[in-house]
Specification:
The structure holds 2 protein chains of 2 kinds.
Chain A lengths: L5 H23 L8 H19 L6 H25 L27 H31 L1
Helix pairs in contact in A: 1-2, 2-4, 3-4
Chain B lengths: L1 H20 L3 H21 L3 H24 L11 H26 L10 H7 L2 H5 L4 H9 L1 H22 L6
Classes of the chains: A mainly alpha, B mainly alpha.
Amino acid sequence: MKGMTLIVKKTAQLISGLIFLYGIYVIIHGHLTPGGGFAGGVILAGAFILQILASGSDFMKLTKEELGSTMYENLAILIAVFLSLSGLLFGAKVFFINWLPKGTPGELVSAGVMPLYNIFIGIEVAASILTIFLALVIFKEEISE
Amino acid sequence: MEIAVSIIAGLMILGALYAIHAKDLLSAVIACGIVGYGLVICFLLLQAPDLAIVQIVVETISLIIMVAVVLDSSREEHYSKPDAQGYVSAVTAIILIVVLFYFFKVASDSLDAFGTGTLRMAEHYIEGAAAKTGSANLVTGVLFDFRGYDTLGEATVLVTAVLGVLTILRIKGKK
């Protein structure tokens, strides 16, 4: 995939950082405001996809990047499963129980394990969508070679 | 509000119909976008901002991927004259639509009016959900506490889908 003109590249470089920060905001405030792991994860993936579309596929050594994204995806879902299993170890010994102290509703650190689930589901969704996009880009280039 | 939702739903149906009949595949993909973004406005009007955020982001990214695919293909839809089997399928589809619509009408007459009345299960969720889950956002509370198994299943489905995509698309691994 070829990159676009200089104007598009510079604009994408300026904007994608802001999009990335917004995705992190949506994930971390998932238990307070609308949004959460799924929405924020797709926004994070969108920041990377914007960069790749603007700068072309030789922008960040894509074959290695794809390996990295699959690794993050699998690790994140593994940690989410372990988090749900950790309810068996602590508290009331029930699968998927919210065993951390809940705190006051409306504060940033509250709701027990829920923010942790949000963060790891967010990483997992971002890495999955980025992996699908990169697979479409990389394997198409392998065909055309 | 019902009128606004009906108008947008009509526009979505028109966009879907245009997407079927468009000659150029790029305009068909963009007409598909009308359906997705119309759904976003419907979600916002029906006061579901969580769904609206997810829908607008997923729609944008899937539209980007579909446009990239269409730009690499021939961009033209192959048109073939319908044969006898095509007519049989069309008649079957129309009969099926009429039957389904009739039963849908019968079923929807026995429901509450749109927007009124909550299910017994939903009442249980809404009452004191902030105290039970500690989460100020009720949707996240339902997603990760009451329906935690569902969310874990969804995430696993996404991982499985990525594994499937990588397995199907890999060329080097096959050789």
